[in-house]
User: Fold this.
Amino acid sequence: MKSKILIVDLDRQKSKIEQIDVLEHYLGGSGLAACLFEKYGLIDEPASHPRQPVIWAIGPLSAMFPMMSKVVMAFKSPYNEQYTESHAGGRLAMAMRFSGYQAIVLIGKCARLSVLEISDHSINFFPVPFLEKADVFSIGKILRRITKLPSGQRSILRIGPAGENKSPIACVNVDTYRHFGRLGGGAALGYKNIKALVIGGRANTSLQEIDLKAYQKRYQELYQLITTSGVVKKYHDLGTAQNLIPLNELKCLPWNNLQKTSDPGIEGISGEAFAQKLLLRKTACAGCPVGCIHIALLREQFGQEHEFLFRQVAYDYELIFALGSMLGLKDAEDVLRLIEQVEREGLDAISAGVLLAYVTEGLEKGLFSIEQTLVDLAFEKAREYVQAIHFIANPPNEFWQIMAQGLAQAVQKLGGEDFACVLGQEMAGYATGENYFVSQALGFRHSHLDLGAYSLDQSSKEKDVHQALEFFQKEEKYRVMLTSCVGCLFARKAYSWEQMASALSCVGLNLGPEELQKIAQEIAVRRWRLKIKTGFDPETVKIPKRYLEVETFKGKIDTNYLEMLRQTYARYIKELVK
Assistant:
């Protein structure tokens, strides 16, 4: 089976189509993106190089089966100058399927700030200098009015001021409520002078190889499993915000820049509090029956005569952690105000929140002064954080220019190593223990979703390096398979290896579970090889001091076990790519 790939040269405003026979070897998504980066990526050039590619890839099951709703964005990260991926949902997977392309590759740089519109029958460039520094919400309103692609058949990607300013913690907003969030995808588009993309079409998505009878039967089986068995019930009910109270009770929820891992104030920002007081509606990515996207109504008075402004703000666990507990905030509406500002500026929410927590503790310790920060930040006080978020995206001085580069760079230039919460990039919201700290610090994307090791910390009290390494290997292989097909990682309990092989057979890919595992392992190795070629050395990774001071429900961190696991996993990664 061949993949239809669109290559867009932004310098010349020209495009070409390539047919690549890779599905049986790389599936799509993560595997296809790595294959394309090998072909078009400039290993020895910086992320800012105009010919450095930005890649979006879907997979053989995208928009064909329930929860197969994600897209992989691959690029050389402006954050760490290494090959990376970011994943997002929304309508993009469906829109790419309707555009007729399995992958889209951008190379070069537009002469002026531009919007790129891609459909099955045309590719159009629109210079938009009037949108310079426009916020994410304004861009969406304008593009929905002027695009020729109809609602329901399109997806809108855009960056805010943070991306235009090339902040390595800038994200790409997808259809308002989803994001390519981590490791600087927004800056990757900023380097190319791309303010937004509109993607869609009406291409015939049928496959000659498809067995309609088998497909319909398998689809219904998976749909019933997902909607009636309860395997993903929590994602629809309270959403991932359901995790806040349990993790707080386990002493695993970071508070006040990880100075503590539990606080009685959790009741004010729990998933239950959001649902009971602020939840307006739930929505879903295209082709997903779960509906995990929870949208709150933020109501703010702006006039004395009972005049109110209403805004819809999506929330989930990671956002509430990063812009809530990490900053000591205990009121759900305060958290929503910060989320809304982060969205408006086009910043990654996790990175922005963890960075602000570092700045706040730096002020407490006297490492920074108010003359530098311009606002007096303090844990538990929300108002000043809104202004500080604006400063990250639009730096008014040298201090905020440094902060806009992300926490890893800030620590190198300004200090604070002892209390910096960075594990490859700004930490995610799991202070669960040694397994998780090592997995994010050394993981391929430095993401909590790389390996899900927080679950190992919570389910096992054993401190067995070999058991942990076996868990890492097993989880990475499975997750690479899922992100190559391309499915949502919330679908883990719905799609076993056997179920995935059965779904693939319905669309013409006859791969048994064992063969599928072999392909997934080859993709994992290919990704690691690219990451190491672009500068990653796992043996030089250090776990910051703050993580060695954490105490969870299992007690204090075992520094000897953590170090043994770090060394063992680093050696495994290096051996993997030989």
Observations:
- The domain at 3-200 is CATH 3.60.9.10 (Aldehyde Ferredoxin Oxidoreductase;  A, domain 1).
- The chain has 24 helices and 17 strands.
- The longest strand covers residues 293-303.
